[in-house]
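Progress narrative, work stream C.
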Amino acid sequence: KPGVADLYWVDEEKAGGDKFAATEESSERDVWGLKSPKAGILLALEQMSEHPVGEAIAKALTSKGVVPHGIRHFESVTGRGVAATADSGRRVFAGNRRMVEEMGLAVPESLAKRADAWQEKARTVIYTGDEQHIWGIIAVSDPIKPSSQAAIQKLTRQGIEIHMLTGDNRQTAEAVAKEVGIQHTHGEMLPSDKANYIQQLQSKGRIVAMAGDGINDSQALAQADVGIAMGHGADIAMDVAKMTLTRSDLADIPTALKLSDATVSGVRQNLFWAFIYNVIGIPLAAGLLYPVNGFLLDPMIAGGAMAFSSVSVVLNSLRLRYKKLG
């Protein structure tokens, strides 16, 4: 799960607001920040967010004893972040660089450099502030599971082309893609951008499966030929997806594909044998051989044979329980 790696607050008392005091999430000391009302406002914003990044920030601040401050008119801005009105009447926010720009705020050069350095380490950077100032930035890291790289390699060996679509900064996206071995990556995408990208692939005759777990993925999940919702994700993602995995682990996707192949194979086997069974059984039950050799199938035996055909289909389907998918 995502966790807060670094938290930097801009120190407005220093020249130009261009220097900052650092407070790492793992540190017990407080430098300007965690006892500030601004930290409480940030906590209140993220407690109302349904995004995994927001949940990680809220958890980190709560663990340090930060108390949420009152906010009203909360708004989740798709593909950007969250915003609300503080008790002071100012609009406050927590979101990505795009949200900062829409608030009409300029990012100080040193703050931008810090954000770039974090993004090169595959960290997601969240900006927080109000309509007049940027208060600080938060780096959220989501450790890549060892199984993820193995899963991507398995899918690639199966001839499946992997594309990563994310709302994260391009630097962060490229750093993650490089680490796990994904060739096609696209960052800073809005939910509609993801859906449009999938539609473009489909227009070229591609069959597209989309895996996602958040609200921002729901539009793309609905557009894909096969939408795969990751476990413990947003409810709307699971509602629109055609398949829901019980765990949030990419390793389950190759397993799900194998299970799907085995299921389709079982269905075809059942249809084939049911067809053969009925082609032979129905003429016999109808008395086809009676004019030839006087053979007539007893109705009770015919009924039993029909029931047995259903049993054979069920038994063949139950073989899936013992199929090795690993």
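Work stream C, second folded protein:
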Amino acid sequence: MTATPKIFTDRLKRKADLSDTVLASMDDEKIYGKNLYTYTFSKALKEKLLAPYKVIVLAVDEAIINATIQKRLKDKNSELILDDTTKIIGCYKALAQIEKKDEDDDIKPMRRSLAFCKDIETSDKISRKFNQAIDEYHKLVPESKTSLNFEIKHIDGSFNGKDRNKLLDWLKEDTDENSCHVLTNVRCLSEGVDVPSLDAVMFLHPRKSHVDIIQAVGRVMRRAPNKETGYIILPVGIPFNIPPEQALANNKKYDVIWQVLNASRAHDDHFKSKMKALELDQNVRHLFEVVGVTLNPALKAMTDIVDELSLHARSESAGLHIGSLACETSHGDNGQGELDLDVYIDQFSRAIKPIIVDKCTEPNEWGNWASNVAEVAQNLS
């Protein structure tokens, strides 16, 4: 019995056949026998045993982190790199629920979160530099300051059981509404953690283990009183001077998006229909959202919602000239640069959606999509 069955996609199975590699996929009856019973994610949601999840991709303008902020974050022993500092700002925006305006939005600030980093050194640095980075950002953009106070701590596999449990108890604490506890780690908290009140998991870097992602995502789906949704937060930096489709093409720093979404397959038996909904231009805002974070708070953080986008035909949707308008000029005078940034984030959002559909579906899944339109409508109702 397992909550995270290891099942390989048809694409990986074909690759394994070509290389004479043997895969032990748990849907192979010759190896594991017949499936006795499956308790699906959708049934657990319906019976309110699990909380629904939402994936938020934070497209953070790298220009937010100017030379002044970067210099102030240096010390003689360590320095946060630009990409990590950018992600901290994005995580702050998401946890504080800044710019949530719609009446259907959950606008309460998040109070408990796990942050997964690429290595122990980075996890430790982020825990020590998080609040300093936020303070420097507030100096640059005073309007962004909120009443939410962050407490950040680090944990890794070298911690003994007593210290580990102490930190988990700290994470579980019933804090006041203006406090948020964040525990940074690499992988030691991907399993064996029971914090039902956890609001979010944040993946700051791509992961090496698919199973680690599946288990980490499962942490945020636990049901708790007054918990409406578990959030999966993916902060990524966007380079303003590069067309979006070029920035997204084979760029390893965006791998975390495809990895996390593909890992959702192991939990979500309606995952295929949700990908079809993206292709059919359905409104899946309650499941997936791209939020742009810019220097100018008056731009409303440029939240771009799937139901406002055209996602037809993966090869055509990306557009031949996407990003060209935004990249013709840089941050300039009289607000022109800010307007161009506004346009760029919109184009980035449009460019990433069809790539998600491409990265997260099997090639043969679209041959009979028309016969499943009813399923899409039913699952989104």
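The chain has two domains: 1-38, 41-380. No further action is required on this item.
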